[in-house]
Design goal:
Helices cover about 30% and strands about 25% of the residues. The chain is an alpha+beta fold and about 400 residues long. The longest helix is centred in the last third of the chain and has 17 residues, at about 380-395. The chain is elongated. Bound molecules: flavin-adenine dinucleotide (FAD).
């Protein structure tokens, strides 16, 4: 990859002066002094936090390698395209972007990804109020969201956007930029450090491999990190990692032969009495087929998760046939996603205890931490991005000796 102007400046300055460079810009972080020479950095996890950090650290001239357990980038940002027909798609994780998520929108713009409204303005949604079924304009749906989850998730329907083509176009754009720097299928099993360097052990085709670096950025969710050997971390940090709770979330997708609900003036969105959201993500995609999907949060998601795949689909078909009558006769195929079952996430998003947040977020020696769980916007891409950028600044400014990594 050709050197960017910033990389060129960074490397020239390091070569000439050995230390120090006025940083002109860093996305999302104000101008700062960059101290010390370029570092060798291992980023653990290619979700939004790891990707943005790897991208910006690379822009600053650091030598970055990303280790990712899965065979794809994006982590909890993943668009489901199989087993659907006709190129239809739906989101397993992140789907909605509100107006005020400046970092998410900034990177959407950086990679020139098209946005479209999340909610349809045509036809009616269904809402259940104290047991009675009502057909309401889409702002009745977002009102129900505000009432149940607070304004963070509600507000005007026009406030909400989605990436046309699927949310995972965003992590894929970062990954394309980083290409040869990401090692897929490389689950990390141990993180160590001493005064000279940090050391990470990952499995490659099942065999352990050891890599050394000046800095390590851990973006692995705590729900998974608790199974990684962490001998170099304090017991307070390990306790915070163990105690952090993750939310159960389930989604069930039902593909239909046609969008029969439209003939009845419905747009396929509904909010049930049990606070389950029903979306029709295909409203802006070409027909005639469509997808109705459920989005269940803690309280309901555990029940779905405890079933087998067929049971989840069958139970959801029965539930949704009661709301969109005729669904069963139109049903073609289903799919499910339960985040507690996901080996590399073990939950949808974190609840870091208030008293543990300071311990959880602090770097320890050469080991730094980022991820949605370590930001003010937990459970959002915005949070993952903000935490990744905060870690870039931390690593950039870190004062530990560097350059000994290869000799550990
Ligand atoms: C159901 C759901 C709905 C959501 N809805 C929205 C939404 O509408 N809008 C929005 O903005 N956000 C939403 N989010 C939140 C958003 O997806 C996350 O906050 C964000 O993607 C988290 O990014 P991350 O980098 O912190 O973590 P992750 O995406 O989890 O990235 C961590 C990476 O580490 C990898 N990893 C794990 N273990 C290891 C290991 N041992 N070794 C190496 N790699 C490892 C994982 O595979 C993963 O790629 C939603 C999330 C979920 C689950």
């Amino acid at each position: 990859m050709a050197l960017t102007r910033r990389q060129f400046l960074r490397r020239s300055a390091v070569a000439v002066a050995g230390a120090g460079l006025i940083r002109s810009t860093l996305t999302g972080v104000t101008a700062e002094i960059v101290r010390g020479p370029a570092k060798k950095v291992l980023v653990l996890g290619a979700g939004m936090a790891g990707l943005v950090a790897a991208y910006e650290l690379t822009e600053l001239g650091h030598d970055v390698t990303v280790l990712e357990a899965r065979t794809r980038p994006g982590g909890r940002v993943h668009t489901l395209r199989e087993p659907f027909s006709d190129g239809l798609y739906a989101e397993e994780g992140a789907a909605r972007i509100p107006d005020e998520h400046d970092l998410t929108l900034k990177y959407v713009k950086t990679f020139e990804l098209p946005l479209e409204p999340f909610y349809p303005s045509r036809l009616n949604a269904i809402r259940f109020d104290r047991g009675s079924r009502e057909e309401v304009p889409i702002d009745g749906f977002t009102d129900a969201m505000s009432q149940n989850y607070g304004d963070d998730l509600g507000g005007r329907p026009e406030r909400w956007h989605k990436i046309k083509g699927g949310t995972d176009l965003l992590p894929r754009a970062f990954a394309k930029h980083l290409e040869s720097k990401i090692v897929y299928g490389a689950p990390v099993v141990k993180i160590e450090q001493n005064e000279k360097a940090a050391r990470v052990v990952c499995l490659k085709a099942g065999s352990p491999q050891t890599l050394t670096a000046d800095s390590v950025l851990v973006t692995i969710p705590f729900s998974v990190l608790r199974n990684v050997e962490l001998p170099a971390l304090s017991s307070r940090k390990r306790d915070a990692i163990k105690r952090t709770q993750y939310a159960a979330v389930s989604r069930v997708y039902l593909q239909t032969r046609n969008r029969f609900w439209e003939e009845r003036g419905l747009n396929g969105f509904a909010f049930t009495q049990g606070a389950i959201e029903i979306w029709q993500p295909t409203w802006s995609q070409p027909g005639p087929r469509g997808i109705l999907m459920t989005y269940a949060r803690p309280g309901e998601a555990e029940r779905i998760t405890s079933m087998k795949e067929n049971g989840r689909i069958e139970a959801t078909l029965t539930q949704l046939d009661g709301i969109f009558s005729g669904l069963r006769g139109n049903f073609e195929r289903g799919a499910t996603k339960c985040w507690t079952d996901d080996e590399w996430a073990r939950g949808a998003w974190a609840f870091v205890g208030f008293s543990e947040f300071a311990t959880a977020i602090m770097p320890e020696g050469r080991v730094h931490f980022a991820g949605e769980h370590l930001s003010p916007w937990f459970s959002w891409m915005q949070g993952a991005l903000q935490s990744g950028l905060r870690a870039v600044k931390e690593i950039d400014e870190a004062q530990y000796p560097v350059g000994k990594a290869a000799r550990l």
